[in-house]
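Could you join me in thinking about how sequence relates to backbone shape in a protein? To get us started, please write out a protein record for me. Would you write everything just below, so we can both look at the same thing?
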Amino acid sequence: MTADQVSALGLPPDVALAPKANLAICETLQQQIAILKKRLAECVKLRADYRLLKTVPGIGETLATVIMLETRTVKRFAGVGQFSSYCRCVYSVRQSNGRKKGEGNTRNGNAYLASAFIEAANFALRQCPSAQRFYERKQRATNRIVALKTVAHKLARACYYMLRDQQPFDVTRCFA
């Protein structure tokens, strides 16, 4: 909305001040975000991993930059399980005979990668029909938070294999 559209609503002058103030704050924040993005683009040296990560549905410029910088090189992980664990995409529960015996350190790993993959999962659900079908199937079996975390885990695994093999994203391999 613009200030003119708020005025056209016909609100009393005192009530119209609140939306106009919110609009002014949003415009200022958008300007500051643009300045930060420009500075980030100047400072960061993008690698080939960046272009690969942008092929994943739900991962745009900002998330690709975060994942690229926080992962550094994928060769430092012995396998996909270690990468998923570092991204906090798997639960740390010890079980024996189907019973919970304890939990590991749930704060181990990289919080920035965890939030990046959760955000990527949310965007992927909007953009990718295969991801949405997978999410709905998981949501029928569990709750929505676990289903979303499962989509984030799938994306993290896909990113590991993409970066390791230097191959673009393949939706059929990820959500089949």
In short: The chain has two domains: 3-43, 48-175.
